[in-house]
Write a structure and sequence with these properties.
By secondary structure, this protein is an all-alpha fold. It contains two helices and no strands. 0% of the residues are buried.
């Protein structure tokens, strides 16, 4: 029965392949971790942006109540300018 013989060259190639696989795995985990962090930050940003929009709408609604007809009169005199 013939036994397997491994040369130093075979072991070096095995180490190269193993090192590449390990480098790919760590890089893949790093990318997934960064993607998760970006998803968390995006969720926070969307929450804060929604809150700011809600506050802006409340301020505009209050301005409309305070100014009342004066604002409407000014628009009629000048026209609907952007």
């Amino acid at each position: 029965m013939r036994r397997f013989r491994f040369t130093i060259r075979d072991l070096l190639w095995f180490m190269v392949v193993l090192g590449l696989a390990e480098a790919w795995w760590f890089d893949h985990r790093r990318i997934e971790h960064e993607a998760q962090q970006w998803r968390i930050l995006r969720g926070r940003w969307e929450t804060e942006f929604g809150e700011l929009r809600r506050r802006e709408e409340l301020v505009r609604a209050r301005e409309g109540e305070v100014v009342g007809d004066k604002k409407g009169d000014a628009r009629e005199a000048v026209g609907d300018l952007p």
